[in-house]
Amino acid sequence: MLVIGNGKVITRDVDHPFYADGAVVIEGTKILEVGETETMRRDYPKAEYIDAKHGVIMPAFINTHEHIYSAMARGFSIKGYQPQGFLDILDGQWWTIDRKLTMEQIRYSALETMISSIRNGVTTLFDHHASFGQIQDSLFTIADVAKELGIRACLCYEVSDRDGMDKAREAVKENAAFIRYALKDDSDMLAGMMGMHAQFTISDQTMEYAAANKPEEVGYHIHVAEGIEDLHDCLKKYGKHIVDRLMDCGILGEKTLLGHCIYINPHEMELIRETDTMVVHNPESNMGNACGCPPTMELVHRGILTGLGTDGYTHDMIESWKVANILHKHHLCDANAAWSEVPQMLFENNAKIANRYFHAPLGVLKEGAAADVIVVDYDPPTYLSAENINGHILFGMTGRDVVTTVGNGQVLMKDREVLVADVEEVMAKCREASAGLWKSING
Hints:
This protein is α/β, with parallel strands linked by helices and 443 residues long. The chain is 40% helix and 21% strand. Helix 3 (103-119) runs parallel beside helix 4 (138-149).
């Protein structure tokens, strides 16, 4: 049993949203009770105790769109790489990297990403993986790392025809095999989806093959209208908009997650809403790739379940929130935009998205919820309450202010020391692995 106390507890539970001096009691993988520190310590005197030291205790973060394989790209410069647009960025950098990844490099990409996630208070992630030089068993390798580090992970492999039909079919089979494996796992820590790159790299034949091999319990995780080129391709080849094509291919539905959705129209938004399909917004990636600003505020206002991800650009969900807040204010020329919508996406919608794949309630501190808890080193200069906590987080915190991370009842990091990995050794191995990747690309 574990008690985390002596902190300002933000529960995200509407019935009991805030404790000025509160504690969270954990038994096994679930939260047993939340209450005043003095009461919880008195009622559970033999429990291990973590002192929050007057910091903020809150639910751990959920990242609904990651790219683990991008870990090896940090600081990398590819010879002759001078992108003139989004397609050049994909082919010149990301597809070049994923074609060269070895299984060892995949493992260390996962280790680096998940350690960084723990440091930023993220305990649940949805990853969209690609490694076209090493497809078979790649998802299982990532899952092994997730188990090792105590991260809750929903994984998929990026199906695409870009390297030929044989590779596309192998990717579908990897997804299907991992999905079946995850469905049999009873830890509530692993899930799988049928991953797809984007419709402009996927033929009808491959769409049909993926559908035929996808277990019915799960949906798809696919990039949608991330670049204008994706829309132009669909109009030219199929005479329809992207979401219409996905609808015709049977891809939409409550278990399907659409990434980006920048170039979609109101009709497509209604299809997404009517089918209860999920969407994830990745603001930093969209800005960094000069792809444009999606109509995210409109999606939220229409009642579409829209979450917040990072696309591998960062592992800090607070950073992603900060960028989304500014992006939509600037894009809409409205200083009031995104104040409520983005925290709703991060704290409410990400949990709802995750709970379409995981059973224990996530993103909330209450009895019976998953024991995913973080402590943030934050000493507010002004009054803090349930009503203004979002303003404190947005303007006063970053992911690296997290000092303690508990995932599924396991202490993953305490007082900024990661307990589930030898970080120094892992980083040394990451540098060796990345050096091998860079040499294989640049010679």
